[in-house]
Design brief:
flat, RNA-binding, 4-stranded antiparallel β-sheet, alpha+beta, 34% helix
Length: 871
RNA sequence: GCCGGGGUGGUGGAACAGGCAGACACAGGGGACUUAAAAUCCCCCGGGAGCAAUCCCUUGCGGGUUCGAGUCCCGCCCCCGGCACCA
């Protein structure tokens, strides 16, 4: 250690495996507070010095770095991925460290079991977040980002993760976004990227378009400003072409259940039918229509088609509703209603999404004057427009069944429309009045020849019946929309398209990539609906790659989520600048073996990454379609009852804590707070526990090495406990049950030191690799002091337990009388019921409770419990 | 409203597959060592009764199944996260 300085090692060109004894240059590092208190004790735990020493050793020897050849030839590859951070100006926060430490524990564990673990980290540096911060500070993001990245890198090294710094990515680096643009071009060529004018979510504060996924309850997810609707030409990725595959593949993934469920809900599959309602010609006076007879043939007027999940209720459809934006509104509105309809449409357009989507808002709407034929009843029904019908879902129009849809019920009540019953519950008849929409199970009533059918069968029969007339079609609808990737901002990869008046949108040829983002001092977005790049004429003026004529570059940049949708594909191939992915290396290392990240990305990032991977598979660029074999979410760190945030003032800055206690202690503490997948409650004093534990561990191992008694045999009971501990930790660590694994090691160390006894080396040496994933520096130091000349992480140092030693020799059997504990007996394992009963009856407290009572039954669970049932 | 997850000491949290509730740790109290501190070590630590042995109560609430329920079933209450006029 620092006390035995050895010559400075020469940097060895040996990567990853096969390095020789680590050495250190002997310069005493700057000491933390705890270190300085220990400076007069030669064998005291000095985390600051130990951590400096080992970080330098790992760095000098390239312990965690892969040479391209090592990547190519790996025999037991394990790709351990964690979600890369956005490099904020504030630096790493505790939440980042929690996530990275937890993922690093997993990677280090895998490595201790002999896997070759690739654990990269990078920076999600493009995006509105960085840009807004740069604007606020009046700095150019091109200057700010490298500073933040440098600071993050320093902090990341300090926490002792086994990151491969030779394979890092920065999404704002042209060497990276060149390939992000390449992906855009591939999608364009495959017909998966298209430009269309569409109503989009516009954040008036961020002054850009947001994807649906970035609108939370009608508010911008970033600044919580109410989102407006705008119509702009945008680039969309056709993720909806993959909907069913994205849904079906979920079954094949080893992911957290909650994450799978979130994806499933987001995709939002609904089964139902599209039904067609013919609009009746506007006739003066009474609207026609032969009552009682179903429509027999399609007619030549406009048709309104609706999507419904309840075609069985079509007999109860007493009116129709179109979304105010529905294209047919203008065509069908009768002249006398035109003014009122116009006014309503304008009102609806003005409302922002929050106001419009208020569920408890009183229903509003207006009659268009048009009538439709209900295809089932043949009755004319009025067509309304109302803002509770959304243009973006289904067909933008509904058949309203007030008896069996609560929203329709409320609307019908406001406007005095009829509310017939067409489904009757078990206790109900055809005429049972409706107090509210009836949504339960039941059979059809008031539905002509379908009366009496259970509603599911009725639905099928009615669709078949209407299908024959060409008025219905079974249909599956999804909630998922195409992914709008255009952003009218500066800090992102320019979309690699050139607009030519004669050729239309032309992709920038692959060999001309990247389209460099120019340095622009005035990058403030404005309300114009176009990117600040549209103000840089010398940049956007260009020639058409096809006809050579004058053309204009696309001035929008792409969504940050596109940057992060493929970064894991790039990491192993960063040695190649001629291709996005090295085929051989990609086949060897992907898909990712284990991905650990926050649940906040359960739908956005994970869905986009799956989509991009699927698209690349179809185009032949990769040979798998699901990028993450296994995904585990980590929890959140709570402090003072809330998620850490600057506004709540409950943020913990990690650097001073690492300075005072060391990264090892901090890591162990974070992992000990609570179950990793659930998170935990950060309490400042709590770090004392893990600190004391590592301290005792250090003292115990050092004294076992130094003292002559340390060479003696292990105490049999301690040894038994050791094997049980190895078993427990080996089962829990791979399942991310870190808190209980640490507790087990603490318990074991307490047993080793019980009564202040001298520990034997044989009792503690296996503890070192067990703690190594959590506290890698102290583990290396102790491993060295135990006389090993190679890293504890080299080879397969994870200890095995001896099943015979795990088996109990004596057991404690609980003795109950009528289920209440009245004593325990110690007996050899495997003691029979008769023997156990005899032992139990020897106990005074047991006999006292049996006295004068008849034992009716005895329940015996071998090695665990004996229960006398008396009465 | 719908879909997840949860409710256990002063606190964070343990508890295999229905079998000794409260592991491990923090905070608190007492002690050893020390001029003093740090570090380390030992003891106590859910509530109530009792000198004690011991007994009673206790896992959000109310029922149930069982020899036995924190764990399973039924009905509630509350908290957290996600989705939400999605037809």
């Amino acid at each position: 250690g620092p006390l035995n300085p050895t010559p400075r090692p020469t940097k060895l060109a040996v990567y990853h495996f096969g390095w020789i004894r680590p050495a250190w240059d002997g310069q005493p590092p700057k000491q933390g507070i705890q270190d300085s208190m220990e400076q007069d004790r030669p064998d005291a735990y000095a985390p600051g010095a130990i951590e400096k020493k080992w970080q330098k050793t790992w760095e000098d020897l390239g312990t965690n770095r892969f040479a391209p050849e090592s990547l190519r030839n790996a025999r037991k590859p394990f790709y351990n991925l964690m979600m890369f951070p956005y490099p904020s100006a504030e630096g790493l926060h505790v939440g980042n460290i929690y996530a990275f430490a937890g993922a690093d524990v997993h990677g280090r564990y895998q490595r201790l079991t002999g896997k070759e673990v690739f654990e990269p980290i990078g920076f999600d540096a493009f995006g509105i977040h960085s840009e807004n911060f740069a604007l606020k500070q009046g700095v150019n993001p091109m200057d700010l980002t490298p500073r933040n990245v440098a600071n993050f890198t320093r902090q990341l090294r300090r926490i002792g993760g086994m990151f491969d710094w030779d394979h890092t990515v920065n999404t704002s680096d042209p060497a990276y976004y060149r390939w992000t643009q390449w992906i855009f071009v591939q999608l364009f060529r495959a017909g998966l990227a298209e430009r269309k004018e569409a109503p989009v979510n516009w954040c008036p504060s961020c002054m850009t378009v947001l994807a649906n996924e970035q609108v939370i309850g009608g508010l911008c997810e970033r600044c919580e400003t109410p989102v407006e609707q705008r119509h702009i030409a945008q680039w969309f990725f056709r993720i909806t072409d993959f909907t069913q595959r994205l849904l079906d593949n979920l079954k094949t993934l080893d992911w957290s259940d909650t994450t799978l469920k979130a994806q499933e809900n987001w995709i939002g599959r609904s089964e139902g039918a599209t039904l067609t309602f013919p609009v009746l010609p506007a006739v003066e006076g009474a609207p026609g229509g032969g009552a009682g007879e179903a429509v027999e043939s399609p007619h030549d007027g406009p048709l309104i088609s609706v999507f419904t999940t309840r075609p069985d209720t079509v007999f109860g459809a007493t009116y129709m509703v179109l979304a105010p934006e529905h294209p047919l509104v203008g065509a069908i509105t009768t002249p006398d209603r035109r003014n009122e309809v116009e006014v309503y449409m304008q009102e609806a357009a003005k409302l922002d999404l929050v106001a419009r989507q208020k569920v408890d808002k009183t229903k509003t709407g207006v009659f268009t004057g048009a009538m439709c034929l209900n295809p089932a009843t043949g009755e004319p029904i009025p067509v309304w427009i109302a803002d509770y019908v959304l243009i973006e879902y289904g067909t933008g129009a509904i058949m309203a069944v007030p008896g069996h849809d609560q929203r329709d019920f409320e609307f019908a009540e406001v406007f005095g429309l009829p509310i017939p019953r067409v489904v009757a519950g078990p206790e109900e008849g055809a005429d049972t009045p409706l107090e509210e929409a009836y949504l339960g199970d039941g059979t059809l009533v008031n539905s002509g020849r379908f009366d009496g059918l259970p509603w599911r069968d009725g639905a099928r029969a009615i669709v078949e019946w209407l299908e024959e007339k060409g008025l219905a079609e079974a249909k599956v609808n999804y909630r998922l929309h195409d992914w709008c990737i255009s952003r009218q901002r500066y800090w992102g990869p320019p979309i690699p398209i050139i607009h030519c008046e004669t050729c239309g949108p032309v992709p920038v040829p692959e060999e001309k990539l990247p389209v460099l983002l120019p340095r622009v001092e005035d990058f403030k977005p404005d309300d114009s609906g176009v990117s600040p790049l549209a103000r840089v004429e010398e940049w956007y003026k260009t020639d058409c790659p096809e006809c050579g004529g004058e053309a204009r570059r696309e001035t929008d940049v792409s969504d940050t989520f596109l940057d992060s949708s493929w970064y894991f594909l790039r990491y192993p191939s960063t040695d190649r600048d001629d291709v996005p992915m090295d085929t051989e290396i990609t086949e060897r290392w992907l898909p990712v073996d284990c991905y650990i990240g926050g649940e906040e990305h359960a739908v956005l990032h994970l869905l986009y990454a799956r989509f991009i991977t699927m698209a690349l598979k179809d185009m032949g660029h990769v040979n798998f379609e699901e990028p993450f074999t296994k995904f585990r979410k980590h929890g959140l760190i709570i402090r003072e009852g809330a998620k850490m945030s600057k506004s709540k003032g409950n943020v913990i800055v990690p650097d001073p804590i690492i300075e005072e206690f060391g990264a090892d202690t901090f890591r162990v503490y974070l992992m000990f707070l609570g179950p990793f997948p659930e998170g935990g409650d950060y309490r400042d004093e709590g770090i004392q526990g893990p600190y004391g534990f590592l301290h005792r561990l250090f003292d115990t191992v050092v004294s076992a090495v130094a003292s002559p008694e340390g060479d003696g045999p292990p105490d049999p009971q301690v040894e038994q406990k050791l094997h049980k501990t190895i078993k427990q930790v080996s089962e829990q660590v791979p399942n991310l049950q870190y808190n209980t694994a640490i507790a087990a090691m603490m318990e074991y160390l307490n047993a080793v030191r019980a009564g202040g006894r001298q520990a034997a080396r044989a009792e503690v040496e296996h503890l070192v690799p067990l703690i190594a994933p959590f506290a890698p520096h102290i583990a290396e130091e102790l491993w060295e002091r135990l006389g090993n000349d190679r890293s504890v992480f080299e080879g397969s140092n994870w200890p095995a337990f001896d099943p015979e030693k795990v088996a109990e020799e004596t057991v404690r059997i609980a003795v109950q009388v009528n289920g209440k504990l009245r004593g325990t007996v110690e007996a050899p394992a495997g003691t029979s019921q008769e023997e156990a009963e005899a032992l139990a009856r020897d106990q005074e407290n047991v006999t006292r409770h049996l006295e004068g009572l008849t034992v009716r039954r005895v329940v015996f669970v071998p090695n665990r419990l004996l229960n006398f049932v008396v009465g």
